[in-house]
């Protein structure tokens, strides 16, 4: 269509009318068809011809999306990307912190695939994870603080037992303790150790009115007598089947003391020749559980850590409180020097300063002349310094008193008597 006056210049400046567009749903091969041309309103003689010899401007490449680049991280970590993909991924890692962290983790994982690398996990990993869980998880039942060491140590031992194989339940274990002036030992198996723990825990069960694993006729026999009766009464040597009744018994003990009320802490537990209140009895059972778990771990080459610092401190404190009575008992048997002074009950007497170092450590003063005497720093005549675990090994009878790595100062006779009294706290 021309202008009003038909001027050629007006016609040349007239807008072009575009051709019809292809339908969006037309899936025909567009490259095979000629593209629609624009039809000018009128022929224009003055228009310059279109140049076809100029190269078409290449469209700039669109960078891959975040999702695409994230999916390439695994291939990038394995060095399996093309050069272009590698460049795109590494450029993206400088801008995206989450992908950068994931890329580092994948590269570390690739290192484990090296043929010369040991694929075994850190042997201490399980114990660290378990310790962290036991220290942080909320209790399902309101376990009293004095029962927590027993709860923790039975759980740790159960985790060890879950990890060992069928044949390792019959691995030989030598139990050690101290009698009089010399060490003693007894050989059994891993399953035999669990049976020993179960039968002695039965003394706590009977004090709470629960079933005794040895039956109603066991009475108030000593821990050693109960263990010998269990080992000799079994038709066959204990196997891994002893784990379930032992663990069920420990769970029942924890539930019972947790719901029994405050008075249960002072309930008396008889051990044959001596007795302990329930709060100290469960702490003593936690100590025995740890000691024998360590015996099992040594027998099957399993890494095992000492209890937490707070629980270890409670165990050391119990041993320190039992030392004056143990020292008096050795005197009655002629195994320790007689007291140098007669001290009235409640009066201060000679004392020994026990300094325990490391996790769970602290300072204790041990009455030397009478269990009823008051141990005072002002009347200390000797000092012994030991590592916490070393002291517990002495109390367990695993370290002879003469070989205990102890720093000593002061009255040598008092120091010897206290070290031997500590070892005498042990038993089968």
Automatic annotation (TrEMBL):
Residues 30-43 have a biased composition (Low complexity). Keywords: Transcription, Transcription regulation. It comes from the Bacteria. Residues 48-57 have a biased composition (Basic and acidic residues). Residues 71-100 form the Putative zinc-finger domain. Residues 1-63 are annotated as: Disordered. Residues 151-297 form the Mycothiol-dependent maleylpyruvate isomerase metal-binding domain. This is Zf-HC2 domain-containing protein.
């Amino acid at each position: 269509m021309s202008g009003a006056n038909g001027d050629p210049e007006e016609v040349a400046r007239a807008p072009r009318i575009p051709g019809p567009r292809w339908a969006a749903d037309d899936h025909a091969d567009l490259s095979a068809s000629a593209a629609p041309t624009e039809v000018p309103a009128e022929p224009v003689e003055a228009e310059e011809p279109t140049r076809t010899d100029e190269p078409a401007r290449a469209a700039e490449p669109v960078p891959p999306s975040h999702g695409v680049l994230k999916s390439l991280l695994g291939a990038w970590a394995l060095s399996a990307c093309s050069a272009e993909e590698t460049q795109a991924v590494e450029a993206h890692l400088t801008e995206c912190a989450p992908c950068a962290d994931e890329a580092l983790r994948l590269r570390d994982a690739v290192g484990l695939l090296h043929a010369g690398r040991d694929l075994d996990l850190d042997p201490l990993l399980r114990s660290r994870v378990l310790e962290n869980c036991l220290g942080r998880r909320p209790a399902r039942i309101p376990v009293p603080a004095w029962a927590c060491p027993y709860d923790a140590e039975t759980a740790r031992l159960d985790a060890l037992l879950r990890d060992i194989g069928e044949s390792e339940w019959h691995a030989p274990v030598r139990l050690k303790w101290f009698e009089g002036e010399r060490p003693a030992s007894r050989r059994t198996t891993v399953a035999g150790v669990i049976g020993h723990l179960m039968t002695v825990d039965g003394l706590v069960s009977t004090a709470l009115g629960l079933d005794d694993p040895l039956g109603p006729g066991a009475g108030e026999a000593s821990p050693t007598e109960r263990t010998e009766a269990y080992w000799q009464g079994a038709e066959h040597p204990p196997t891994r089947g002893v784990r379930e009744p032992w663990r069920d018994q420990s769970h029942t003990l924890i539930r019972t003391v947790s719901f029994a009320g405050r008075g249960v802490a002072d309930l008396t537990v008889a051990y044959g020749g001596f007795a302990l209140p329930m709060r100290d009895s469960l702490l003593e059972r936690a100590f025995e559980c740890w000691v024998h778990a360590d015996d099992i771990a040594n027998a099957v080459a399993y890494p095992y850590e000492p209890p937490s610092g707070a629980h270890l401190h409670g165990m050391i404190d119990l041993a320190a409180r039992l030392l004056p009575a143990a020292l008096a008992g050795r005197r009655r048997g002629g195994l320790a020097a007689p007291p140098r002074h007669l001290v009235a009950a409640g009066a201060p007497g000679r004392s020994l300063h026990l300094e325990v170092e490391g996790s769970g450590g602290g300072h204790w003063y041990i009455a030397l002349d009478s269990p009823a005497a008051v141990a005072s720093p002002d009347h200390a005549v000797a000092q012994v310094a030991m590592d916490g675990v070393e002291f517990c090994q002495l109390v367990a009878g695993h370290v002879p008193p003469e070989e205990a790595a102890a720093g000593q100062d002061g009255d040598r006779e008092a120091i010897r008597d206290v070290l031997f009294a500590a070892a005498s706290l042990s038993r089968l």
